[in-house]
Amino acid sequence: MSGRPSADAGDIEVGSLYDAHLTLLALRGELDVATAGALTEVLDRAAGTMPGRSLLLDLAAVSFLDLRGCRPFGLAQTALAARGDRVVLAGARPAVLRVLHLLEWQERLPHLADVGVAYAALAVGAAEDLLARIGRDPL
Q1: What is the spatial distance between Cα 33 and Cα 30, in angstroms, rounded to a whole number?
Q2: Strands 54-65 and 22-31
Q3: Which of 36, 31, 3 minimizes the C-alpha distance to 44?
Q4: Where are the beta strands (DSSP E) in 19-119?
Q5: Element (H, E) at 7
Q6: Residue 125 CA: distances (Å) to CA of 53, 62, 64, 95, 120
Q7: For 2-56, how does the pLDDT look when each residue is reduced to its tens digit (9 = 90+)?
Q8: Which of 2, 18, 55, 87 is 20 to 30 A from 80, alpha carbon to alpha carbon?
Q9: Strand arrangement of the beta sheet that strand 111-112 belongs to
Q10: DSSP classification of residue 49
Q11: Number of H helices, E strands in the chain
């Protein structure tokens, strides 16, 4: 996995890692009306990096999330789903999870408690997709 230094997007910080099948963004700060525009730009850039990559968002250091802060997640999921990729959330704190559950986004934006588990699940999914494309049964 290759890494890029953290970028400041408004009042949020974003660290990123890329590999062959996914982009991992580690978000830090408050995701609300004040940071939604900057977050949308960050997710748009990440979603446009390469087709065939899912987007894993590490929310462990997100201290606050409101409805406006969620909107960029939904926009990214719509864009990636159109090309067969997905957005997966991981590591969210209980207060952040509460907002996602109130919006009933569990199926649209799955959340896994651990970033490592989420990464492994996406890696297995990418391997199964590749095998299916070349005509072999998934593992």
Answers
A1: 9
A2: parallel
A3: 36
A4: 22-31, 54-65, 87-90, 111-112
A5: strand 2-9
A6: 11, 26, 30, 29, 9
A7: 444 344 555 788 988 877 778 899 999 999 999 999 999 999 988 877 677 889 9
A8: 2
A9: 2-9, 12-18, 22-31, 54-65, 87-90, 111-112
A10: S
A11: 4, 6
